[in-house]
Amino acid sequence: MKNIIIYLTILLSFCMTSCAQNTTDQDKVKINQTSTSKMELSEQEWKSKLSPEQYYILREKGTEKPFSGEFTLSKDKGTYKCAGCGEALFSDDMKFESHCGWPSFDKEIAGGKIVQTEDNSMGMRRTEITCAKCGGHLGHIFDDGPTETGKRYCVNSGSLSFEPIKNKTKTESVDTITLAGGCFWCIEAIFEDLKGVKSVVSGYSGGKIINPSYKDVCSGNTGHAEVVQIMYDSKTISLEELLEVFFTLHDPTTINRQGADEGTQYRSAIFYHNENQNSIAQKVIKTLNTNKAFDNPIVTEISAFTKFYKAENYHQEYYELNKEQAYCKAVIKPKMDKLHKVFSDKLKKHE
């Protein structure tokens, strides 16, 4: 009984600080005024404009599952806007990692762009935040932020769109390569730790099916491989260095297989984005085979990149969010340990 009471206490505490809510008009008490011009559409127009998930969050005051949103762990530079009307609400320098499961910001862009209203739903008293321009539900605001503002804007990813900063610094030379080396959970975690790597996104490539789902790809019938699309600063880390890590931390000599994972979706492959990358990949493999780096010949496919399909949100940052899961402990952690041992000079912690 004692354990049950403790569990219920923890559960109640989590619910009180989450974004979830089901507010009625009677519960709302406006507590600040804005000068933002209103955007008014009929519900049918909203349904046509928004995706089902966006409509559920923005118009029906729904809440996405924790750690499922696109922007929960995003560190990209740019502006977060309302997904309903495009109003700029937050910038990347306002964002912080709160570990609550939703994107968190310590302040908003000035100008009365967000309305705060009292929310007495769910058997508790909270403060809802909505877009002043279109009235879309964003989430809630709490007084437990870690910065000088003391605020934590707890926002649903589905209520936001993102506009990245387009101008690259002159000291950067950003390139993209797409690699397949078995389960993308493994290789995503590996490349995210390397200095010079700007972003790593898990997805599917190399097949003929448009917009495949994870279930489709797992059937082995789509022709797609599980891949990671890597954006990197070639002035900080070269493609040769990336491929050195790639060939060290997966088995490039097994056809359509990595350990217990078997099927064409788990094949070893390099999808090059230009002829220079093709030339480098060919040269690296030839050198490894000549030097008999492996007991068996390398069977890694080298193909021209055609199309990348981003995997479902729950596949992104999988290792970071599921380190205690059995697969992560048994399969991914040994690879990460090897990465930190063999390539310690290439890790971001040394930057």
Q: What portion of the residues fall into strands of 2 or more residues?
A: 15-25%
- Name the shape in a single word: elongated
Q: Return residue spans where pLDDT drops below 50 for at least 5 consecutive residues.
A: 1-18, 20-35
Count of helices? 9
Q: Kindly, what is the distance between the CA atoms of the first and last residues, rounded to a whole number of angstroms? A: 50 Å
Largest pleated sheet: 6 strands, antiparallel
In which order are the strands of the major sheet placed? 3-4-8-7-6-5
Approximate helicity band: 25-40%
Gyration radius over CA: 23 Å
| Global structural class | alpha+beta
Chain oligomer state: single chain
Count of extended strands: 17
Overall residue-averaged pLDDT value = 87
Order of helices and strands: HHHEEEEEEEEEEHEHEHEEEHEEHH
Write a structural description.
With 351 residues, the chain is an alpha+beta fold. The protein is built from 9 helices and 17 strands. The chain has a 6-stranded antiparallel beta sheet, with no helix packed on it. It has a 6-stranded mixed beta sheet with strand order 16-15-10-12-11-17, covered by helices on one side. Strands 2-1-9 form a 3-stranded antiparallel beta sheet, with no helix packed on it. The radius of gyration is 23 Å and the shape is elongated.
